[in-house]
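SAMPLE LOG
Freezer: B-3
Tube label: C17
Construct: single chain, 273 aa
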Amino acid sequence: MNDIAIRAAQVTKYFGKARPASKNGKGRVTAVDHVSFDVAGGEVFGVLGPNGSGKSTLIRLMATLLLPDEGQVLVFGRDPVREPMVVRRLINRVSVEAAFFKKLSPMENLIYGARLYGLDAGPARREIRQILDRLGLPQASIGKPMEEMSRGMQQKVAIARALLSRPAVLLLDEPTTGLDPRSKLEVQAVVRELREQHGTTILLTTHDMAEADGLCDRLAILDGGRLTALDTPDALKKRVPSGNGHPTTLEDVFLRLTGKVFEDADAAPEAIG
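STRUCTURE (predicted):
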């Protein structure tokens, strides 16, 4: 790992009008509240937090989909506000709401994406087959309409689309949500391969504590838009005694720092986080 791939400096994002929240809940909401951290080149950096904690908003700020109201995000020293097209060539994003042409097949969707990235259809077709094979997508599914595929299989296609652009920074927002255990392992293996073989910097949000513990070099925990902890998984677990005679888990850490049980935090749809 070297250099600074992502720098967040006092990043703040508000939603709503600039007045205190009224009794009916309307008013300005602080989704991300003066958050600062650096992500080294080649690092796998995880962001954990309950629903509404600001995780997805933070990803959107880095992906140039939102502009910060205060502070700054830099991607390899480039400002997404001033140089959005330069930053977009460095990054790609996978989220749980990935959009496709549902009547088209995975191959047709990915060829379309490859042309947007400036890739020739012939070489792209071969690379697409290799990527989909690594992700465990059955060959028989490559030519079927996307609307006939499960959400988990569609998520694999979304990841394949992101990999086609060979991004220097890959933003993964809940990348394995909805996947079966085997598919999760296949996606996680690709994440490790990207870092180890290509030096890709990866920032991911996840509700899977085992995934966070096994994949991430460091973890940031957000709660109410604020950064409450930042350290390696092992160092975070050392901060919190289990109290039950068993080794401390990330769930124990999460509960201690946020006051929320992780399963409860994941129960409702996330509006801004």
